[in-house]
Amino acid sequence: MNPIPYPAAPTVSLIEGDGIGPEISAATRRVVEAAGGRIAWEPVLAGMTAAEQLNDPLPPATLESIKKNQLALKGPLGTPIGGGFRSVNVTLRQTFDLYANVRPALTIPGVPSRFAGVDIVMVRENTEDLYAGVEHYVDPRRNAAESICIITRFGSERVITYAFEYARRHGRKKVTLVHKANILKMTNGLFLDVGREVAQRYPEIVFDDLIVDATAMKLVIAPERFDVIVTMNLFGDILSDLTAGLIGGLGVAPAANIGDGGCAIFEAVHGTAPDIAGQGIANPTGLMLSAVMLLEHVGQDEAAARMRRGIHTALANPETRTGDLGGKTNTAGYADAIVRAITS
Ligand SMILES: NC(=O)c1ccc[n+]([C@@H]2O[C@H](COP(=O)([O-])OP(=O)(O)OC[C@H]3O[C@@H](n4cnc5c(N)ncnc54)[C@H](O)[C@@H]3O)[C@@H](O)[C@H]2O)c1
Questions:
Q1: Which atom from ligand 1 is nearest to the alpha carbon of 284?
Q2: pTM over cut 0.90
Q3: Does residue 12 have a pLDDT over 70?
Q4: 250 lines ligand 1 (CB under 6 A)
Q5: 114-246, superfamily in CATH?
Q6: CA of 72 to the centre of ligand 1 (A)
Q7: Which of 26, 151, 157, 238 is most buried, with most CB under 10 Å away?
Q8: How far apart are CA 21 and CA 24, in angstroms?
Q9: pLDDT of residue 5
């Protein structure tokens, strides 16, 4: 699934993002460097910042940079609610056909959460479903509207195959396909049918399926029941915030958007946190763990492992955690602690 032999120091488009984005990006760059990650960053603009500065939320230069580098690390981007420009996140995923959104939820020792031993990887289909962007008002007075749920055999097969290949590559035992095929018999039924077909090619991996509402309940009662989950766009969007909640919240959740040929955009799951932006207190762990996934993706496994260990060490100590995790330090103090852990 990752056939590109990356250069020793690949160039990566860096979208710092809006709100807390610049603060968490600066901390992340520092820690990547301390861990020995060899990345040549190419800063580019997107989101509200780009809309304000260049009158375009997704400028051509940003698209060109990602097209050339095939790799990006992205901070959070603000999206106007209701009207305004279309989500830049959704546009980027569709433009580069990044069909698999991989969101690991792994318990981090010391981080306050309700469960121990959570180790779930959510693979969310990223280009179809209700997020395909096909919606309209059905009457001129805007009293009724409809969104079209699009599911294709092609889109289903490639993301479900990705989930099984991921499971095989990482020695995982089970893939659970989540759907609502009892009600949405055609769209979700197709996704489930394709899942059953693909599963036959992976006899060593247990396959089961679960209805989305039951999944939500089981995730909060017995998260250890789950290993790899593969699901459609909307359910994956919602359930991956739930799995982030199982390990301590959005502040510590990373994600990777992956397409064929190695093209990938790595991003924190959380948003721009406008309520704390500019105060230097944001938790950069989500973006840092996304950078760890980036280092693994480009074959820099040792730097990735050093960085992950440093993050875990800093998170294990309440003195060196950020306030959202009940800690006593700020963004820069937390990055200092990780750098100390890596270099000592
Ligand atoms: N991937 C993305 O770019 C992305 C994802 C979600 C939301 N958004 C956008 O972000 C904006 C704000 O959205 P929202 O308020 O619903 O969600 P949010 O994730 O920005 O914030 C929700 C709450 O979590 C806190 N929080 C989030 N990240 C944090 C961090 N790293 N450290 C400490 N606290 C953190 C915030 O302070 C806030 O109280 C919206 O414009 C939305 O569209 C972007």
A1: 31
A2: yes
A3: yes
A4: yes
A5: Isopropylmalate Dehydrogenase (3.40.718.10)
A6: 20
A7: 151
A8: 5
A9: 78
